[in-house]
């Protein structure tokens, strides 16, 4: 049987339609993906993302373990700061992408849905092999994760806490009392908008906090948002979805994530990445905007002059641009900015222009 | 939300409606179908003049997250398509039985009509 969020019944009452996502039955929408998408871009939306995982890393060697197993040097991430990173295999391909939060003497990482077991086992194994004094514990089912995203997210949450939220900088994280409940807040998100994420335990408090946030955001037109809009929101910003963009084994260089790699420390997979970098002829994640009608989807072929040069990893119609957009892996010779590739949609080539992400700029709302 | 099923139409178990008008039939998707698909954002229509067989793919209707094939409920020749849907696919959501029609087919085999569901049977199904 599929896992359900602890606040599944509340979603039902709010009119959610559900979908299976990595073994979790989660809301896909509450009526209209398009409407929910625009609500987040223009105002504020509330997501339940409890399908994501939670792992505590404790012990004197917690920091060393993260430094060894991710592309980040965890000693550079001070208390109350978080960092987006990837965990690699020895061959440089991604096991998972995750955020880790430095919370006093421990770290919490947030792997993707259904990845908790794999990641926990991998990290514990690496701790043991390298004599690092650290323990990873999968506490995924003990937490509800909520995301409040959109230009009015801070104003909404501010009503529920005495902590001045402006003191929490981008990627800041800390314990907070929100609506009378102690939880973890981070200034992070997956929409490209101003936003926060909450880790709530024990889970029976989550229903109440969800309702209180909806109440607090009422004056800004807050809505509950499903995973459908979560996907289109992230795609418009060129953010990676692990299940799509890392499918089949991709390295962070292929996924064009060099910006998160800290080369000044040793980490698992580093040698493989250096070798790949030197060779240079690897496919790279490329953003494409359709110049004609048609919606690209996962797995569609990308061509230039009738020759296959890549494959779409994620595609959709952009609710903001009202045009087809895609990310896909392309041969390095065919991804120059403004060049035109064809995405093959049911046998028909649809002209698509290479752009630099994001598809939808930060000031989009102001130009509407 | 109340789902509309019109008495004067024929239906399929794959949620198409069929309106017989002499020797042609107008085809669309039902109110139930559009409410399940939610925001329709793209429609791919067949060429006028194309001959199709019952249960062949007739057109493609896409929502933000899904691609749905619409199958021909009867055989015949495409004599008209609702071109407006290419610019305003959301018309299917707004008016599934009127402005949101998909194609008009010249009926090739009248005996196929008796296989279609009436409104009472379709209502029971959904």
How would you explain this protein's 3D organization?
- The complex is a heterodimer of chains A (368) and B (126).
- Chain A is α+β, with helices and mostly antiparallel strands and 368 residues long.
- Chain A folds into 3 domains: 3-50 and 143-235, 2-Layer Sandwich (Gyrase A, domain 2), CATH 3.30.1360.120; 55-141, Alpha-Beta Plaits (2-Layer Sandwich); 283-356, Aminomethyltransferase beta-barrel domains (Elongation Factor Tu (Ef-tu), domain 3, Beta Barrel).
- Helices cover 21% and strands 32% of the residues of chain A.
- Chain A has helices spanning 8-13, 33-42, 62-69, 116-129, 153-158, 206-216, 227-236, 242-245, 270-279; strands at 3-4, 17-21, 24-29, 45-48, 55-58, 82-88, 94-103, 106-110, 135-138, 144-149, 173-178, 181-186, 195-200, 223-225, 284-290, 301-304, 307-318, 323-330, 340-345, 348-355.
- In chain A, helix 2 (33-42) crosses helix 7 (227-236).
- The longest helix of chain A has 14 residues, at 116-129.
- The radius of gyration of chain A is 21 Å and the shape is globular.
- In chain A, 50% of the residues are buried.
- Chain B is built from 4 helices and 9 strands, in the order E-E-E-H-E-E-E-E-E-H-H-E-H.
- In chain B, a hairpin with a 4-residue loop joins strand 1 (10-11) and strand 2 (16-21).
- Chain B has a domain at 39-102: RNA polymerase II/Efflux pump adaptor protein, barrel-sandwich hybrid domain (OB fold (Dihydrolipoamide Acetyltransferase, E2P)), CATH 2.40.50.100.
- By secondary structure, chain B is α+β, with helices and mostly antiparallel strands.
- The radius of gyration of chain B is 13 Å and the shape is globular.
- Chains A and B meet through helix 2 and helix 7 of A and strand 4 and strand 6 of B.
Task: Characterize this entry briefly.
The complex is a heterodimer of chains A (368) and B (126). Chain A has 368 residues and is α+β, with helices and mostly antiparallel strands. Chain A has 9 helices and 20 strands.
